């Protein structure tokens, strides 16, 4: 008969009246003295509940002294008994710990499921709330000017603006399908020989916005200074001062669009302000111009983007999202609008409806987005990151990431040329140009310049690369003086 505690044959077996288990007498007596319970069932157990089992056994001699071999064997036996009791205790504790861990894991899994469900319901509620238009139609008295109120606007574009967006898309997408490389476009060999040929600088201490169009460069600074250069003529054309930091800029023909830290969006012609919008409750972090040149978009850290009608200088739509927005860009056809978020996600919306079409994960707060003229790809970079990722808007998940470049320094700006071949990447360590050969479907680096680029853009036919550094110094990279 085996002892239920030690698992060894019992020399003096006893049986429990309570559980019917067999034990070694000396082990169970020690257990009862310490615990007073049955070690198997946990029921109360006393010495009177033990019945001796009569078996044939060899009577061991009584050890005379501790210095004799029999006495040592007895000591070893006592040590073994203690070890057997401790081992049994450990097995019991291990079993209880396993049961407690199993219960804790079950409770944790249940909690995670509840949190996921509540998060999903919260996001659905936010999405539904963002589509509610709050307005006063005259059926109730207007609230007092000093009363607390919350306006949730999520508007659809007016029908005439929708027609503009759809018409622009139809015209541009049709011409893009078989568009050849424009005649006179610089070759990869030309660009590989680009170097800094001209520089011009002005009173901008900390550049925070860059825009280039037709040889004119507009730069805004954290001190509110706005400077317009003509790099080709190596001169500063004019400058003016805003009362707040400039956070974003863009050109619309001869007009300069400026986003500010207070959330306002202002439009200037020369040094004269011709329009101003104050729709954001946080800094305007990005502005983008629709290909039709009649629609303007701005994004903000207040989690919303706004569309403006440039003909009538009015807001025509606002859409709220679930994350602070950091930058934006229109698709070359204008039917899609991409917005980068502080959470590292790039959300792509339908311009006409404001509905989200798809999204891509960058893994870091989005700092720059630029679409390729092929209409399928866009490049994006994270704030403070040295990696540029190219995504295909036709795909999802990991398959959407077409290519990744490591630049060696933090990326500040991106620019794709009109021929869809050259991607310029500007950063703290300089300028890099990647060339895509459509015939071989391969990428190659054709230029590296050590001129630090806070902002950059291509000239017509990529014959020049216009670059600006943190201090507002503008340079032209080209093959000729």
From TrEMBL:
Its EC number is 2.3.2.27. Residues 136-147 have a biased composition (Low complexity). Gene3D superfamilies: YVTN repeat-like/Quinoprotein amine dehydrogenase, Zinc/RING finger domain, C3HC4 (zinc finger). Keywords: DNA damage, DNA repair, Isomerase, mRNA processing, mRNA splicing, Nucleus, Repeat, Rotamase, Spliceosome, Transferase, Ubl conjugation pathway, WD repeat. SUPFAM superfamilies: RING/U-box, WD40 repeat-like. It catalyses: S-ubiquitinyl-[E2 ubiquitin-conjugating enzyme]-L-cysteine + [acceptor protein]-L-lysine = [E2 ubiquitin-conjugating enzyme]-L-cysteine + N(6)-ubiquitinyl-[acceptor protein]-L-lysine. WD repeats lie at residues 277-318. It is found in: Nucleus. Residues 127-147 are annotated as: Disordered. SMART domains: Ubox (SM00504), WD40 (SM00320). The keyword Ribosomal protein does not apply. It is an enzyme of class 2 (transferase). Pathway: Protein modification; protein ubiquitination. Coiled coil: none annotated. Pfam families: ANAPC4_WD40, Prp19. Residues 1-70 form the U-box domain. Homotetramer. Ubiquitin-protein ligase which is mainly involved pre-mRNA splicing and DNA repair. Required for pre-mRNA splicing as component of the spliceosome. Belongs to the WD repeat PRP19 family. This is Pre-mRNA-processing factor 19. The lineage of its organism: Eukaryota, Fungi, Dikarya, Ascomycota, Pezizomycotina.
